[in-house]
Amino acid sequence: MGNGIRLMTGLWLVLAGLLPQAAAAQTTFTISGRITDASTNEGVPFTAVSIKGTTSGTTSDVDGKYTLKVKQLGDSLLVASLGYQTRAVALKKVADQQLDITLQPAATKLQEVKVYGKGGDPAYRVLRQAVARTDQFNPDKLSAYQYDSYTKIEAYVNEFSKPRKPNRKPGPVGRLLGKLPSVTDENGNPAVPVFISENVSELYQRNQPDYTKERILKSQVRAVGITDGSLVSQFTGASFQQYNFYRNFVRVLQKDIPSPIGQSWQTIYTFHMMDTTMVGNATVYEIDFEPKRETDLAFTGTVWIDTLSLGLVQIETKVGKRANINFVDELRIDQEWESTDAGALLPVRTQVVIDTDEVTARSPGALVHFFASAKNIVVNQPKEPSFYTPSIELADNYKETSAEFWQNARPETMSAEQYRAMQVVDSVRNVPFIKFTGEVLKLGFNGYQPLGRSNLDFGPLLYTYAFNSVEGSRFRVGLRTNTGFSRRWVFTGYVAYGTLDDRFKYGIGGEFVVKRKPWTVIGLSHKYDLERLGISAENAGPSSFFLAYSRFGTIRRPYLQEQTFSYIRKEMGRGFTQMIGLRQQSFDPQFAFAFKSLSNDPADPAIQRTYNTTELVWETRFAPDEIILQNDNERLSFGATRKPIITFRYNFGLFCNSPQPYHKFTLDIRHSLRLGVLGRTTYSIGAGIIPSTLPYPLLFIPLGNESWFRVDNAFNLMNYFEFVSDKYVSAMIEHNFEGLLFNRIPAIRRLKWRTLATAKVYYGGLSQANATLSPTVDEKGNLVQGFRTFSRMPYVEVGYGIDNIFKLFRVDAIHRLTYRTSSLDPTIKAVTPFAIKVSAWLSL
């Protein structure tokens, strides 16, 4: 079962980084066969096959196979492919016929080329001029463009029936798959289809500023372990399948691969002029390319450049197994480009094939096909910015389709084997083991387990149990409603109990989706629970595992909090979100704590230990190119692609025993950018100020990390509660070399390790008023726990690490450069100047 779960996880990871391939009209006459090279007998992909004198036609697949169904049968079949002589083959007047056709290489060859001095291969002269004309052909230089799109994705589990070593039987997963319904893959071996989707949509792109919108008109999804068609329909559309080779890097499978016609073309690749030939009515240069170092993350393939305009006509690329991509044995991207009315080029056909690597020697593999086509292209007619919100939108009747609709919508004829694959998926997903594997994957990804038909989910499982010094054994039961309950209302709740403190804690909340366009929600929550200073859901962010871990072990500075929070959140424009909320909370410390009264009332005690606050919270968030999917009653963010995400928050608060309100201002900027062949850098910059006098639990407390694993948004050698400030600036920087260094070391480059470097800096200050607000003893004379403040030196930690160990683990060596000596205050934990920390996740 372990191999099966790893296989399905790897397959869905590939689908999450990419996904979709092929299909158009059912008729009377069926012509099928395989087109091969006369000299090599290898299949010729993307061959144009058409009936002479009609508009009916198709293209061969990656192995040269084709199927054409037509209502009107002509006298001959025309077969044309780039670099080969066009053939006309006589047709018989029969319902079904198979024609296997061989093609001869084109007779048009380059004239003799004489090279003088340092001219080198003539391909470099052509590429140099073609790259110089990038701005003329790059679709990013258009003010806008739009087109009608068709996309298809097919995913198969294969390689489960191949011969094993002597006396080695197939694994249990392979034996099970061998009993399931299957189809035949390109190599004639059985393959089990597990995912098939088709989308028809309208895609709109506006440049400067960049806006993308896809309106999905029709969609159908048949898949194993997936029940939410709306989310998958958005995720498998054309928006996620944009490959522009005129950019310096092509983003595929969450990797930035240098383009062979980008600015780094001569640094990364070597080129060879192979031929001149005809593509349509254009005479083109055929140029082969390959990376200078085969272990680099780069393409191998062929590019066809127009001899007159020097624009891109067609490109075929491949990334092999030795490149630094996990779970991928081979990746192929093939495109055909056409000129628009404005002169710029656009890809009108894109086909991607991903052959995944086998997780273990006895486990099966997986194959993913993606196909996309564009038609009815319109350029330089930008819409108003408001039009592009939301970035992905489902038509109200997107599920209402028929077999006749898809037959007409597909740009190519679907083969009998592809029809059968769609039927087989329905059978496979009902197999008990496959259903169980799907449920395990869903549980691992979202942490909730559906409870039968109750429309309730149990979880998150990470928070179900904890053991710490305050609560002893902590048991927690949580529930939430799902979309079966309501597409507008979401209710959550939990109850927790500690055996040591013998106290019940609880939380309850609800959220209502007011509008989906623009996205508007209102919510209300109330909770009573044990917390610890320095760690909260607000500053820990999305790290749910870290929050769960913080409930274990010795909890220093624990406090009980009762909090009520109401809010409204609305998207005001593309990537521009506003939130305003009202929060009331209490602070009941379970440790030695006190502060001097801020009240002018002589009746109030001079020293106090508990307080209440009421805050008005206003947050504005700007993420102009963030990809958001709307899943019924929730939104899922896939992060920003090229621009930073900026968040500003203002808190206006009333302190229970102070006559003056207080203010908090914070700013956060997060961004990821490509540094050419050197890799990718991710950074975040923060700043904040509190121009008010408050007890130190209400001031800024940087997020520390005392665990054995690394946390992205934490200072990993800072203790949980170590520093306090009322003003600060911070910076976190991580650079991933993505195999740039290890790929050049023969002994270890096969391991596909990736090197990283990190640096984190935090500097803060504390006003005299806030510094003196905490007394040394409480009203009973007990020593009050203190805190550490910053001197003129910032906190600095740096690290270096290795990622992708066994395709899963990351190890970081981290040095704390400042404040390396422990505080003299015995209530503050000793510091750790150096540590090795580990983290793990599946990545490509």
UniProtKB/TrEMBL annotation:
One Pfam family this chain carries? DUF5686
> Which residues, if any, are the signal sequence?
1-25
Q: In the UniProt record, does the keyword Amino-acid biosynthesis occur?
A: no
Task: Check the record and name the InterPro entries matching this protein.
Answer: CarboxyPept-like_regulatory, DUF5686
Name the source's superkingdom: Bacteria
Signal found in the keyword field: yes
Name the keywords, alphabetized. Answer: Signal
The name under which this protein is listed is Carboxypeptidase-like regulatory domain-containing protein
